Amino acid sequence: MIGRSREVRGLTDTLGRVIRELRTQDATPANAPSRRRLAFLGVCLVLIGFNLRTAFSSFAAVLTEIRASGSVPEWAISLLTTVPVTLLGVFAPLAPVLARRFGPKRVLLGAMAVLTLGLFIRPSEWGPAGHLPGLILGTALCGAAIALCNVILPSEVKQDFPHRLGLMGGLYTAAIVASAAFGAGFTYPVYQATGSWNAALLFWAFPALAVTLLFVVVAVRARPVRRAAEHGGANVWRSRTAWHVTLYMLFQAMTSFSVFAWLSPILRERGIDGATAGLMVSASIVLQVLGSLFAPVLAARFWDQRAFNVTLAVMTSLGFALSVLGPIELVWVWIALLGLGQGALTAAALTLIMLRTRDARTAVNLSGMMQGVGYGVGSTGTLLVAAIHQATGAFTLAGYAFLAIGVGASVFGYLSGRRRTVGED
């Protein structure tokens, strides 16, 4: 009996080894296409990021020509420059709800389809009504779609690239910043080539369409959402850590949108000619791309991000304030400090979504909260600068205001940089 028991155990062990080997052999070829799919997904996410700012910067690039055409009243110009940023905050909280209901990848696909539709509608002419209805409707669709993509992209990186957070965070945030640069840099040459501001705006619908078609493959293969997981994730609205991250994002957004809107007028008022001011803004955006590319990699490697966050907040606020108040002979130094700081600051704030959460559902909840509040309230930075300039006739007080904003960003950058996750508090 003992001998037979040993034989049975030996046979069982042998069968177990064979089954394990067969499973290993079967898994090897199955993992290869999975890696290819993951690489394909990474490329798609970066390309989506590349389409998230062209709608804003392309409109600004031909704003003078739109005004000169006389087809759009001045009140509408103000509306079209402020509403998109406001919509980033309005629609951001909706993204987690849609992601739980339909799945994040399908929501990304739907948002890209809406963005493409908005870019096609925006320059169209509506008979006797002219261009105004298309501009308003198209711009609103673009703002809503970009808000959804802004929120869901970080959670997708958290979900699908947990061991490459720094690399993927850097790539997609750099793509977002680069999209603003490309929209600003290539829209006017298209206008010069075609003689039509409508064609210059329409141009940006085609990259969005290409990425939408590319992402269909990813969305179709995405797993269906389980009902049991619909209400997953920590309650971010009751988390101090989540509020620290959100307020860090808010102060970042106040500076970021103000730089986009007012840096060139500030430089012009200081006596710099239009061509040189444009070159300086372009150089600032290029440095933003570099800062946004490397900041997530560095942030992910640090034990915590307190010193890193504070350093970036100080760089950005000093760069902006000195561009207004500092010696004009050193303006290129201030522009470089501002560009590197702002790009890295934006990327660091978005990277905190991944570093301060334990799972993708909490990440999308935090992303919706911080971008809803951050963009919704942070967009008032541009209004603050406008009010200061209108009241005083100069930008001088704006420089001091952004030193104060830098203090706020430093405080909440320190608090959000502590090694804690949402739900622990």
Automatic annotation (TrEMBL):
UniProt keyword Thylakoid, yes or no: no
UniProt keyword list: Membrane, Transmembrane, Transmembrane helix
SUPFAM superfamilies found in the cross-reference section: MFS general substrate transporter
Superkingdom to which the source organism belongs: Bacteria
Record keyword Membrane present: yes
Residues spanning the membrane: 38-63, 75-95, 107-123, 135-153, 165-191, 197-220, 241-263, 275-295, 307-325, 331-353, 373-391, 397-415
InterPro entries assigned to the protein according to its UniProt record, in alphabetical order: MFS, MFS_Cyanate_Porter, MFS_trans_sf
Record's protein name: MFS transporter
Taxonomic source organism: Sinomonas cellulolyticus
